[in-house]
Amino acid sequence: MSTATTASVSTHILDTSVGKPAEGVAISLSARTGLDGEWAALGGSATDADGRCKDLPALPEGTTHVRLDFETETYFLNKHSAKKQAEAQQDAPRVRDSGAFFPEVTITFAVNPGEHYHVPLLLNPFGYSVYRGS
Fold first, then answer.
1. DSSP 96-120
2. pTM beyond cutoff 0.85
3. Which letter does DSSP use for residue 28 in this model?
4. Is 20 helix (H, G, I), strand (E, B) or coil?
């Protein structure tokens, strides 16, 4: 019987187009055991004002792979709508539409028992980057 604890996951999102955290991005978490295992949806959450998602569900014992699904399209649509409203109120010049080229971002990675995985997403309307943080 193994005494190792399960892996844990956290994430945050920085909107690099404005240099600020991305608030309100819905995130879903799934896990599987083994390369051929079925994905099990574990639940989800949304980023807070700091762009962090602090309440992702715990991973089940035996998890070998994790998938984070970020719903980016809604974030950019809401952000663009808010920007249009602010511009109208301030008579600011219009900027070009910056909808989401990637309506969702899915990151899949392998995990080992007992390790913590912090997976930041650097996001802008036309690209993204991800890495294993600390």
1. -----SSS-EEEEEE--TT-EEE--
2. no
3. E
4. strand
